[in-house]
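Encode chain A's predicted structure.
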Amino acid sequence: MKRMRRVKIVATLGPASSDEATIEKLARAGADVFRINMSHASHDVLKQTVQRIRSVEERIRHPIGILVDLQGPKLRVGKFAEGSVMLAQGGTFTLDSSDAPGNAERVQLPHPEILESVSVGDRLLLDDGKLQLKATRVGGGSIETEVIYGGKLSDKKGVSLPDTLLPMGALTEKDHADLLKGLENEADWIALSFVQRPEDIIDVRKIVQGRAGVMAKIEKPQAVERLEEIIKLCDAFMIARGDLGVEMPLEQVPGLQKRMIRIARRYGKPVVVATQMLESMITSPVPTRAEVSDVSIAVFEGADAVMLSAESASGQYPVEAVSMMNKVAMAVETDALYRGIIRAQAAEPEATAADAISAATRQVAETLDLASIVTYTSSGSTAIRAARERPSKPILALSPNLRTVRRLSIVWGIHCVESADAVSLEDMVDRACVIAYQEGLARPGDRIAITAGIPLGTPGATNMLRIAFVRQDGAGSS
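Encoded structure for chain A:
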């Protein structure tokens, strides 16, 4: 099974889509990576879902990536005596450490770290930003606030603090247990929620130790302020526009999305655009025109992947949502303006042999109108560097590591195949030509570009570019 588009699709699994038959339908409709959201999944559900995905993968004979998304610290108010209260604009409201049921004047905030960290003037956003408070007095285990935007506040609603750097890591006790269980079940990617600082990524990398890719979710202003430091440390990142739009002015999010995709290209890091992409398809079989435009913009900008959340997890039309995203992406990639826009966003290659070879390979492949680019990759880095160039020619990545094959399923434009390492230069050329022919990426008489590292099998040592001719028997000569 070969995709006809370059951008990848991440589909979240949930009550509407976690049975094996639906997972297969989603994969055939275009899903490349399945996300398991640990905010809603138990360890038993995680194990069962992974088994179902792997069963589908074997049946359709196409690598599927698995992304385990950690919940992160969830900050919530306590409970009210009456279940809810109405907060009036301009009124006062206190958050404190008392576990007594709340009323119209106060409620418990069972997070001492927040009570100690908030400063006068800091904003507190409640219930996904529907209510806004401003701290007027802090200390003594409580925060007195002025109600800027009022409304109904009920039990256990979430709290966001866009102006406050919390003295806590992104990895909670629950996240640590979920992370270990994700690694045990051989997840390909681990997504870390509510990253604030580079140290959050370092903490997770120490635990993961290369067994999965580490993806930073950018959803807090504190992360945006240290964006480049965070991106350098992670393997990929997600633009989590939902929480980002709660904690930052909404009008800034589109510009941030563009900026982050450009930074991803510069550093050669895969980037996923997420949240509310086809939101109306939770209850409707067709999206709005604005949603189609939103997906199109992410594809035009060169994002590696676009993601569905509730649309595929709990919506009424999960398969239709994936199918629609697939159709929109293919329409954009065949648009006359697409190649020009993608090329205009290109970043200069870094001063490394791998980057220089990747840039040269794209230019050679397009100048000589080669059928495809074939990269030998052990860790996946060579293939990711090739994808960073956004060539107009297909990229075929050959790797002896199944984990690498699955991990690359989130990267733009890469068709990855598991293949044993070549034993000689002649074998390398033959193997590349045969697999390109078998995968429908080259025909007899075509030429392909091959990149690899010499000595063969050395991770991260891309230093060779070869042009090979596909013979009638599918083998190659150079």
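The chain is about 35% helix and 25% strand.
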